[in-house]
Specification:
CATH architecture of one domain: Roll
CATH class of one domain: Alpha Beta
Strand order of the largest sheet: 1-2-4-3
CATH superfamily of one domain: Homing endonucleases
Structural class: alpha+beta
């Protein structure tokens, strides 16, 4: 009953959001939907044993903090590890419910002490079982590093073929943020672990939806991707019904506020 009530509440909040027609022409929406449909079909062909929602969760997560793990270079089996801080426990539970048919145990809380900050942090995590369904994604997103003796994550060359709106929504929920609340309708994606070459792949993939992005230096050899102001319309159109209300606080509403401002008014 609680899950049903939560879903009804989410739908009520989504109903309060502004019409995308304020920011895009119908022809632009049709173009985005056509491109999205093609990419969704590509992703379903790549991951035939996963639902589209599961595949989008994994690909979007792999652009962020999700890890696929394998025992060795020749093991050939993989599992996914999901981990979030205490404040995002509800989000982790939402992810768990999407993939629970692949999981042995529910999310478990844990803590660790950071010597640098002298602070104890609380988090929750869960792992999937080792599953053959994960292998197609592992082959794309990981290369074995002999020096480090581990599989290292990369942005695959084909990311533009599978970057669906659902993938972008998960990626933003995991690693997105407002650029400048009250002054901008642009957003940022945290991409610290990727190279400039890999970021160029993401820039080109997002440009297929008319979302213009550029790299912004965070520190030496570390960048974030920032969207342009004029890219708000396409991004909002794609994410309006896909973002969880949990994350309305960090997505702009097109008028220099946030989606949370819209549903709270």
């Amino acid at each position: 009953m609680t899950n049903m009530n939560n879903k009804q509440n989410q739908n009520l909040q989504k109903d309060k959001l502004r019409d995308p027609a304020l920011f895009l022409e119908p022809s632009e929406m049709d173009k985005i939907e056509s491109i999205a449909s093609e990419k969704e079909n590509n992703l379903k062909r790549l991951c035939p044993d996963l639902s589209l929602e599961q595949a989008e969760l994994l690909v979007g997560g792999l652009l962020g903090d999700l890890n696929l793990q394998t025992a060795s270079k020749t093991a050939g089996t993989w599992r996914a590890r999901f981990l979030h801080g205490k404040k995002q426990a509800d989000y982790l539970d939402w992810k768990y419910n999407l993939v629970k048919d692949m999981v042995g145990t529910a999310p478990k809380p844990s803590s660790y002490y950071d010597e640098r900050t002298k602070t104890k942090y609380y988090r929750s995590s869960f792992n999937t079982l080792t599953r053959p369904e994960l292998k197609p994604l592992a082959k794309l997103f990981y290369v074995w590093n002999d020096k480090l003796n581990k599989a290292c994550k990369v942005v695959p060359d084909c990311i533009g073929d599978i970057l669906t709106p659902g993938v972008i929504a998960i990626w933003f929920q995991d690693d997105g943020s407002l650029k400048w609340e009250g002054h901008s309708n642009a957003v940022r994606f945290s991409t610290d672990s990727f190279s400039e070459e890999e970021l160029q792949k993401l820039i080109e993939a997002l440009a297929m939806y008319d979302i213009k992005t550029s790299t912004q230096t965070k520190r030496k050899n570390s960048w974030v991707l920032g969207t342009s102001e004029e890219s708000y319309g396409p991004l909002y159109f794609m994410l309006k019904h896909r973002l969880l209300p949990l994350f309305y606080y960090k997505f702009p509403n097109g008028f220099y506020g946030t989606l949370q401002d819209d549903v709270s008014s």
